[in-house]
Specification:
The chain has 307 residues and is an alpha/beta fold. It folds into three domains: 2-92, Winged helix-like DNA-binding domain superfamily/Winged helix DNA-binding domain (Arc Repressor Mutant, subunit A); 99-168 and 276-302, D-Maltodextrin-Binding Protein, domain 2; 174-271, D-Maltodextrin-Binding Protein, domain 2, CATH 3.40.190.10. The protein has helices spanning 11-23, 26-33, 37-51, 68-95, 115-124, 142-146, 192-195, 207-210, 233-242, 253-256, 286-298, and strands at 2-3, 9-10, 56-57, 65-66, 100-106, 128-134, 151-155, 163-165, 170-172, 174-179, 200-203, 226-230, 247-250, 262-266, 273-280, 301-302. Strands 5, 6, 7, 8, 9, 15 and 16 form a seven-stranded mixed sheet that branches. Strands 13-10-14 form a three-stranded antiparallel sheet. It starts with a strand and ends in a 5-residue tail after the last strand. Residues 9-67 form the HTH lysR-type domain.
């Protein structure tokens, strides 16, 4: 869609600009929008040529900054784009016979295991559409705060003053991921202390939340060292495969991320990981409450994969 006639701007270009204004990184913007970095660069260059001035200061290649013009354009465009996007989404829903949509972002990959919750919600509310979306581990709560998703399924704890934690959705043990040629791969299971002998990836997320999956110390007080920063599961698994790090994951990843180069070893002396839906307190709707009620009525799913 093109706005403002022949000299206007493509709606997709506006989306690219607003996303880059949030991420301030060409690579993350491209990944978030599922386009190439070249497409992002072209869209921004086209807008800058149209306006006759730069929107971003690119002096620092690792983190660009908005220029004063860029900040003004961001502030002017954001409410316009959001309103237009919402109008188009409502029109599409109406055309498909739905009256509303609930978007659930999933940090864990086990959406298939949770299908009884999705199916029950849809059966109870046939006029509401349920969409299950992937959610990143990097800056995990940003999507909720931006309005990209209405509910986020995440591991606990979550201690954010603007977020509400819903009923327990599922629990499960943990596994340690190592290369198949690692000496530990010969074992049937390992202790938490074994994790302290290995380097683990670093995630750009609140420290307390990361420690809900990967503790900072073992029960004996040994520090579990962090190493390279990763932005997603694919990057973490690539580092595990190469032997640079090990990974501590929920046990269900051994089914969803099965690979010939990685062994998943049950960790025998860690508590289970707990997952729950989370949402913005100020954005709680009838749909969110209905989803929480569905989870509460069905009770939590217990994964015994690694027990």
């Amino acid at each position: 869609m093109t706005l403002a006639g022949k000299d206007g701007v493509e709606l997709r270009d506006i989306e690219i600009f607003l996303t880059l204004a949030e991420e301030l990184h060409f690579g993350r913007t491209a990944a978030r929008l599922h386009v190439s970095q070249a497409r992002v660069s072209q869209a921004i260059s086209r807008q800058e040529r149209h306006l006759g001035a730069p929107l971003f200061d690119r002096a620092n290649r690792r983190r660009i900054e908005l220029t004063p013009l860029g900040r003004q354009l961001r502030d002017d465009l954001r409410p316009v784009y959001t309103g237009l996007h919402d109008s188009l989404r409502r029109a599409r829903l109406h055309a498909q016979g739905f009256t509303a949509v609930l978007r659930v972002g999933m940090i864990p990959p086990n959406a298939h295991d949770l299908r009884r919750y999705w199916e029950t919600f849809r059966a109870r509310h046939p006029r509401w559409r349920l969409r299950i979306l992937h959610a990143p581990v990097t800056d995990p709560f940003a999507g909720l705060r931006r309005g990209d998703v209405d509910v986020l399924v995440t591991w606990l704890p979550v201690r954010e003053p603007d977020l509400t934690v819903g009923p327990l959705l599922c629990t499960g043990p943990r596994v340690l991921a190592v290369p198949t040629d690692h000496p530990l791969a010969r074992h049937d299971r390992v202790s938490q202390e074994a994790a302290a002998d290995l380097l683990h990836p670093t995630v750009d997320a609140p420290g307390y939340w990361v420690e809900g999956l990967l503790p900072a110390r073992t029960r004996r007080g040994r520090v579990i060292e962090r190493g390279p920063v990763v932005g997603n599961a694919e990057e973490a698994l690539a580092l595990v495969s190469s032997g640079e790090v090990a990974g501590l994951f929920p046990a269900h990843v051994s089914r969803y991320w099965k690979r010939p180069d990685i062994a998943y070893l049950p960790v025998r002396d860690l508590d289970v990981v707990r997952f729950a839906p989370v949402w913005r307190t100020e954005a709680e709707t009838d749909l969110v409450r209905a989803f929480a009620r569905t989870v509460r009525d069905l009770g939590p799913l217990e994964d015994q994969e690694a027990s």
